[in-house]
Design brief:
The radius of gyration is 24 Å and the shape is globular. It contains 20 helices and no strands. The chain has helices at residues 10-44, 48-76, 78-97, 102-130, 134-165, 170-173, 175-189, 203-226, 230-252, 266-296, 301-308, 312-325, 331-349, 358-386, 392-428, 436-442, 446-454, 458-498, 504-516, 521-531. It is mainly alpha-helical and 538 residues long. Helices cover 80% and strands 0% of the residues. Helix 1 packs antiparallel against helix 7 and helix 4 (102-130) crosses helix 15 (392-428).
Length: 538
């Protein structure tokens, strides 16, 4: 029997650094287009709907195909799927960089979304195969989580630097060398793993999951961006109906895309729920932090992105401390503590005013990020170890899908609270000398108010901008307080549900004792559901 305490060596840690390459780039690619869009618009002259598709098609396909690609990796091999995805991501990047029409760029972004959906669950599932020791696996997952966050932060920085010196396509070519390196060294460094007993991929289930995720996320995002409209509600309902049909089909077919029995495990289902709520907090924090620095403090995008990097050392210290504590403290209590740390961050952000020092918002955002990452690192480990090794790809993909859904909800829920307060304050404000049409335009968003104020000279323009900034920070205060309440409730519930999950060191010792005493397979399997158990070699 394979020992659960088998230690990873130098090869596995080098392989982990290779796995971080696609992860960094997938998360960076989500934000790089925001910087490139003005240059793309000038060059390709896309219509308004084409601009929206350029922005959204990547994220939509990434989110909608995660579950399918995770299950596919379990069947054909996770390393194989990772390398196929890397090749497709590199090809899509080249196609995007040299696109000569809006249609070509949209198609290239679609290919990048499909390829990205193969990369994210494959990297997390391979960590499950390479790191059998719980302590090492927890460290590896922490590095994985930090890389995902760092990619989202570095994307605007890298994009801004490239666009300052080269043409807009250079932002996409950044992906190519990393993918080439992965293709070159991946076959020798990364282990292969697939479920030999898995059946065929059910295409009907794949279609249902795609429509379900796309419908819900698209509807939520459109309501957040455009306001409530019946057609968006219809799209969400269609997505929910497809989701219901997907779940029913998984219960009846021989080889389900998603093993619903996993949700009977409290650690697994509670961890998925924590990921959704944590993503609500993370995206909400990023939304307010970015707008505050750029539109309230008047920073340029690249300057704001660089300042955002200053919180990374503190986040890494928090993750390191939580990793040390995880050897002695039960994960349920650490997850609750992490969420409460994020609550503290939201409370700090809620005290921001237009004239507050930058450090206030940075500290608040850093606390939110540190708390969320502490919680999600631990939940990622529990999600992977609760699933059998042969289903780790699908389990990791479910976690990522929950994170994508949480991100959409974060923008919709917290963004809607802030927008409602902003609109109310602007409508109630007295703006002397500001034309009625300009005041109406400024009622929508702070960005619109900033653009409108720039076209009004003298004291009236300054008054409009000051009023809009006050209204924005007022809305931000309410939204961050709402986020703090949501996270506080999540901390209480998560601690209550997960308090029985033992410390990894305890379960590791238990598994070793039972292994040496030739315990029945069912007993060892129950322990393995917490610590991961032996990993078959293929």
């Amino acid at each position: 029997m394979t020992s659960t305490t088998a230690k990873a060596g130098r090869k596995e840690w080098i392989a982990l650094t290779v796995l971080l390459l696609p992860l960094l780039l997938v998360s960076m690619d989500m934000g790089v287009l925001y910087f490139a869009l003005p240059f793309i618009s000038e060059d390709l002259e896309p219509s308004a709907p084409q601009q929206l598709w350029m922005m959204d098609i990547y994220g939509f396909l990434l989110a909608g195909l995660l579950i399918t690609m995770g299950a596919l990796g379990d069947r054909i091999g996770r390393r194989r799927l990772l390398l196929i995805g890397a090749a497709a991501f590199g090809a899509g990047s080249v196609a995007a960089a040299f696109a000569n029409s809006a249609e070509t760029l949209i198609a290239a972004r679609a290919l990048l979304g499909v390829a990205g959906a193969t990369l994210m669950p494959s990297t997390l599932a391979l960590i499950r195969n390479m790191f059998h020791d719980p302590a090492q696996r927890r460290t590896a997952i922490g590095v994985w989580t930090a890389a995902l966050t760092a990619g989202a932060t570095l994307g605007p920085v890298a994009g801004g630097l490239l666009l300052d010196h080269f043409w807009w396509g250079s932002a996409f070519l950044l992906n190519v060398p990393a993918m080439v390196l992965l293709l070159a060294v991946g076959p020798s460094l990364l282990p292969e793993f697939k479920d030999a007993a898995a059946g065929r991929l059910d295409l009907i289930s794949a279609g249902l999951s795609l429509v379900a995720v796309l419908g819900v996320i698209y509807g939520i995002k459109e309501i957040a961006a455009e306001g409530f409209a019946p057609r968006y509600l219809v799209v969400i309902v269609v997505g929910l109906v497809m989701g219901h049909l997907f779940v029913r089909r998984q219960r009846t077919i021989a080889d389900p895309l998603l093993d619903l029995e996993l949700f009977r495990d409290r650690a697994y289902s509670a961890s998925i729920a924590v990921n959704v709520i944590a993503s609500i907090a993370m995206l909400g924090s990023a939304l307010f932090n970015t707008q505050y620095m750029q539109l309230v403090l008047g920073m340029r995008p690249l300057e704001a992105a660089l300042w955002s990097l200053t919180v990374m050392p503190g986040i890494m210290v928090a993750l390191t401390v939580s990793g040390i504590l995880a050897k002695r403290v039960r994960p349920g209590f650490l997850i609750g503590a992490g969420l409460l740390l994020a609550v503290a961050g939201f409370l700090v952000m809620s005290s921001a005013r237009p004239d507050s020092p930058l450090v206030l918002v940075l500290v608040g955002a850093g606390l939110v990020a540190a708390g969320v990452l502490i919680a999600t690192t631990l939940t990622a480990e529990m999600i992977l170890t609760a699933a059998p090794p042969e289903r780790a790809g699908a389990a990791g993909a479910t976690s990522e899908t929950g994170s994508e859904l949480g991100g959409a909800l974060g923008i919709a829920i917290l963004g809607s609270i802030a927008d409602a307060v902003y609109g109310r304050d602007m409508r109630n404000a007295t703006l002397d000398g500001v034309p009625a049409d300009a005041a109406d335009a400024a009622n929508d968003t702070l960005a619109a108010a900033s653009a409108t104020a720039g076209r009004i000279s003298g004291r009236a323009g300054d008054q409009l901008l000051d009023t809009a900034r006050d209204a924005f920070t007022h809305g931000m205060q309410y939204a961050t307080l709402g986020g703090a309440v949501l996270l506080a409730l999540a901390a209480i519930v998560a601690t209550a549900l997960l308090r029985g999950v033992p410390v990894a060191a305890e379960t590791q010792a238990q598994a070793k004792v039972e292994s040496e005493s030739h315990a029945p397979a069912g007993t060892v399997a129950s322990v393995a559901s917490v610590v991961g158990g032996p990993v078959p070699t293929h």
